């Protein structure tokens, strides 16, 4: 059973450089949420704040009645046992081989015997497709393998919350697709609350139950997948469809001249909403909803062709601008 | 530093890590220590030998040499090696772990790196510093003996017999306490600098550099104060 994370009025700055201000959102228990945003908008900072590695300037993060933004070090170490975290580069311990890396949390936090540990570790290694590589050192394997090993390590303590930092950076499209499927299957299996930080639009259109978008030092929007994918809000529509027309420029925000220049160019129509990935073994996922349910309940007409079997997930379709 | 003080007494104690680190520090320091302490003893023997000869107090050269080695040269040579060899290795290790996000990962797994990594290293450094101090003392005195007897024509019997003329047991304790404190300072500074490395691989290099320089300066200052205090507190042996 997953755990809800409630974030209230979170603000963070480094020195006098504001990262984001007044971020308020609730990650529903047991659902998969994706946090998006242009590079440098503090997505990773948000992730690190959620696990208490960074202290926010203001605001609260409530997990099971504890405010991690303002609690004691000791409570923080307790609450962190609920978390599994996958860092961008896997963050494997360089001095240990993969087996010891994955076994590390078990050896430190549980009194399990070595044979029990072996079973769990091998189980997780198989899950991420790394059987046979247990005795390699992190320095000897590719970035993608490190990432998968990091995922195995994040899973051994059966976390209630799984935080994932850019699972798809540096992975090939096939492995990314497998990893996305793995997230869905895992969510069905362990019912944990997932937060994935990414800027891969294919993943974000098909994997999550909820999407959030960080832009220009604030949370532009957070809500169910269909709400964001059918949104006409310029920032959201631009980012989720990988287009150049819109308020986001090469360096953060476009200036007035650039916006003036594209005043007459209309945003291309929204592409159809693809179906959400389902579990590979047909096992029902608690958080999964019927396609189009949100749109119907809220009286929103989804873009034509939505929820069809063959909706293309390639980003940027029809994004060409004739200026 | 306060965190380390608190974590020192926190259970479970990481015995395995402590032993591994102690062994690691021994391997990086023992040979340089032996090599440094021979010339150290020899130089003292040469200087003092020459000086005492002019006074006609050659029979005291053994005693003076022991006094200098036990009280100052031992702890100082230990300090140099602990800071230079062990401290730099610790700072580099922590720096690399920091920039690879290993320390973050450890904290996220609910493990306090101060208790898990820093405390065993600090204790190992302190213990090995005391051992090294003993080694420097022995090798230094032996080196002094060789130089005094072989090169300066001193008498072996006089060198050894005069050992206890000026030196006394508290000198020995003082040297050991110094070494203990030096080991503590070197490990703490190295760990602190390493854990706060930032800015990629260059940051690690900077952290190691700063750690070694700061430790050197601190150790020499602390050495001065302990020596001054010791001379005030413990009366010199009467003759």
UniProtKB/TrEMBL annotation, chain A:
Residues 266-323 are annotated as: Disordered. This is ABC transporter ATP-binding protein. It comes from Aeromicrobium terrae. PANTHER family: INTERMEMBRANE PHOSPHOLIPID TRANSPORT SYSTEM ATP-BINDING PROTEIN MLAF, PROTEIN TRIGALACTOSYLDIACYLGLYCEROL 3, CHLOROPLASTIC. One of its GO terms (molecular function) is ATP binding. Pfam families: ABC_tran. The keyword Transport applies. Keywords: ATP-binding, Nucleotide-binding, Transport. SMART domains: AAA. Residues 5-241 form the ABC transporter domain.
Automatic annotation (TrEMBL), chain B:
Signal peptide: none annotated. The chain crosses the membrane at residues 21-46, 76-96, 117-139, 145-163, 175-192, 212-231. Pfam families: MlaE. InterPro entries: Permease_MalE. Keywords: Membrane, Transmembrane, Transmembrane helix. GO terms for molecular function: phospholipid transporter activity. GO terms for cellular component: ATP-binding cassette (ABC) transporter complex. It comes from the Bacteria. Coiled coil: none annotated. This is ABC transporter permease. It comes from Aeromicrobium terrae.
């Amino acid at each position: 059973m997953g755990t809800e994370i409630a974030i209230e009025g979170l603000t963070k700055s480094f020195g006098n450089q504001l990262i984001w201000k007044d971020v308020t959102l609730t990650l529903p228990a047991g659902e998969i949420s994706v946090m998006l945003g242009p590079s440098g908008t503090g997505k990773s900072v948000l992730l690190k704040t959620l696990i208490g590695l960074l202290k926010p300037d203001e605001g609260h993060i409530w997990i099971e009645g504890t405010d991690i933004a303002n609690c004691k070090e000791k409570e923080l170490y307790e609450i962190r046992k609920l978390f599994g975290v996958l860092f961008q580069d896997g963050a494997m311990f360089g001095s240990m081989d993969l087996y010891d890396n994955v076994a590390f949390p078990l050896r430190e936090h549980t009194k399990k015997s070595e044979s029990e540990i072996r079973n769990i570790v091998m189980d997780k290694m198989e899950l991420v497709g790394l059987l046979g590589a247990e005795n390699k050192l992190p320095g000897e394997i590719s970035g993608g393998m490190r990432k998968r090993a990091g995922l195995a390590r994040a899973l051994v303590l059966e976390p209630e919350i799984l935080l994932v930092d850019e699972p798809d950076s540096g992975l090939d499209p096939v492995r990314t697709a497998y990893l996305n499927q793995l997230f869905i299957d895992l969510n069905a299996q362990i019912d944990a609350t997932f937060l994935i930080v990414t800027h891969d639009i294919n993943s974000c259109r098909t994997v999550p139950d909820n999407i959030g978008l960080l832009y220009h030092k604030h949370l532009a929007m957070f809500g169910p997948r269909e709400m964001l994918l059918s949104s006409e809000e310029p920032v959201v529509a631009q980012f989720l469809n990988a287009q150049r027309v819109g308020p986001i420029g090469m360096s953060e925000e476009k200036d007035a001249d650039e916006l003036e220049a594209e005043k007459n160019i209309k945003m291309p129509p929204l592409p159809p909403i693809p179906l959400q990935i389902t579990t590979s073994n047909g096992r029902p996922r608690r958080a999964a909803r019927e396609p189009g349910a949100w749109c119907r309940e809220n009286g929103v007409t989804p873009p034509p062709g939505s929820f069809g079997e063959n909706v293309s997930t390639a980003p940027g379709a029809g994004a060409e601008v004739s200026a | 530093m306060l965190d380390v003080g608190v974590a020192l007494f926190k259970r479970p104690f990481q015995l395995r890590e402590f032993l591994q680190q102690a062994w690691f520090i021994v391997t990086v320091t023992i040979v340089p220590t032996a090599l440094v302490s021979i010339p150290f003893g020899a130089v003292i023997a040469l200087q003092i030998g020459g000086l005492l000869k002019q006074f006609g107090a050659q029979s005291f050269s053994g005693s003076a040499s022991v006094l200098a080695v036990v009280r100052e040269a031992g702890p100082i040579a230990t300090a140099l090696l602990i800071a230079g060899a062990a401290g730099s290795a610790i700072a580099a290790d922590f720096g690399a772990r920091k920039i690879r996000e290993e320390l973050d990962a450890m904290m996220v797994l609910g493990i306090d790196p101060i208790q898990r990594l820093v405390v065993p290293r600090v204790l190992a450094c302190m213990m090995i510093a005391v051992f090294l101090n003993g080694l420097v003392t022995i090798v230094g005195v032996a080196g002094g003996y060789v130089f005094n007897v072989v090169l300066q024509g001193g008498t072996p019997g006089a060198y050894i017999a005069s050992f206890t003329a000026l030196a006394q047991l508290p000198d020995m304790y003082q040297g050991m306490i110094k070494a203990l404190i030096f080991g503590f300072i070197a490990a703490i500074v190295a760990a602190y600098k390493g854990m706060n490395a930032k800015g990629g691989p260059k940051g690690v290099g900077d952290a190691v550099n700063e750690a070694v320089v700061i430790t050197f300066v601190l150790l020499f200052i602390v050495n001065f104060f302990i020596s001054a205090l010791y001379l005030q507190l413990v009366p010199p042996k009467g003759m």
